[in-house]
Amino acid sequence: MNEPLPAPNILGALWRYRLSSLGIVVGTVLVSVIVALTVGSAGVAEARIVLKAPDSAQALGFEVTSESGFVRYVNQRALFVTSDRTLGTARERLGGQETIKELREAVTASASDNGDSILVRVDIGDAERSTEIANAVVTAYQRESRAEVSAAADRTLKALRNRREQLVADIAESGSGVDSASSRTISELDQRITEIRIASGQFGDGVSFVDKAVTDSSGVITALLRDAVVGFAVGVLLAATVAWARADRNRRVRDAADLARLSDEPLLGEVEALGEGETARLHNLVVPPLGSYRLVSSVLRNTVRGGLVAVTGVSAGDGATTTVLQVAGAAARDGLRVLVVDAAVRTRELSHNVALQNDWYGMAPIATGAATVHASTRVIEVGPGIEFRVIPAGRASEGAPDYFRSSLLRRAMVEARGGYDLVLVDLPPLESAPEVSALVPAADGVVLTVRKERSVAALRRARERIELLGGKIAGYVFTFASQSSQTTAQHNEQQGETPGRVSATTVHRGGQ
After folding, report:
1. Over the stretch 320-347, which tens digit does the pLDDT of each residue have?
2. Which residues, in sequence order, are CB contacts of 192 under 8 Å at separation 6+?
3. What 8-state DSSP symbol labels residue 227?
4. The domain at 44-215 falls in which architecture?
5. 254-483 has which CATH code?
6. How many beta carbons lie within 10 A of that of residue 205, not counting itself?
7. What gap in Å lies between CA 37 and CA 219, rounded to an integer?
8. Are residues 437 and 430 in contact, defined by beta-carbon separation less than 8 angstroms?
């Protein structure tokens, strides 16, 4: 079919690359916290100025008659806090270490949420210095505000006095004396002058009280938590994006349906993943084969008519050796004459499973012309009256695979066909053992085992390699699949059928 696989799932991609994704998330959170500590509010100090409400226009020329008017008044005074006049006075008190520009960037003032005070916030990078600057700015504001109120009152008083003096001079110049109207006007002017003196004295600097500057330690913790949460969210998004992009470039065979989309050859069977203890029982040949392998054995006999089957995995660990042993056991129990060949002469995994790893005879000496098929064949009994034969890997000296002769390998496979209903050749992945590539074209069909989550690129390389060698893929066995209730029940049923014997018996005798 060779249909494209669906786009990877984001959660699946995150799980596949969970370690790198976790590293991205942790790294992003750490960067966020470091940035918060470096440029955050660790050096911030805050002071509060609570204002008096001006109830007369005589002192400042501004009269507050409503709540909204008072809010406007507080906002205006907040602007006065950060004016060059106030900051200049604060700079003088501080000794002139910072410029007006630096103070303007570090100092902010705003009306509080309830609108009755001014919050002065200073961030110069150092908590102690920020506190000094905040207190200096508050003191400078009080001083300049008092001077502003005093100057406004003096201007008003001067105008009232000039008006009174002018009125008195006009009365004296007219010579008519002080009438009742003039007397009332002079009295009103004197009363207003007195009121302004009292109001300006009471209003003073317009400050009810001041909360001295303190460092905002709670704000630091809040900022760290906030930045950590933001970093976590950004890290998750970044990790998900990276994981999805990697998963999209490195598509994996997630289930049997994906394998069916990628190939035209049939799926011979799907083998579920088992627990560690259950996996060990698969290599005990006395135990009846798993139900899924019995199905593979039946389908394989109907698919490959010639009888010589090479079994290899896309990569090491895909279950090719287990598949060979399980299918051989199933076929032997069905009454077939079965021969198993261990062509993985480097690892000799199958030979280890049948306790023939130390046998000198086998495929390695056959491939170098030092032994024959007849002399290398061994009998494995898996039950009363049930047996199959094995050609082990054999003992080979270091570098012997370099001297393997393709003609001898092919001749051995031709000889092995005789007298058997099914010949199973356990091949290592061809990319790791090119010396046995001559066995691929000699086989009637090649069974390729594909492990769950195996990359699509690796599967395609394995297929291309088999086709280039002249082999024909008979089908696939999907291994380590998600376990279903049906396959679990089958496995449990087979465990109940296990005989009392715990291992297969190896009978060392040559011939067929």
Report:
1. 999 999 999 999 999 999 999 999 988 8
2. 58, 160
3. H
4. 2-Layer Sandwich (3.30)
5. 3.40.50.300
6. 19
7. 12
8. yes
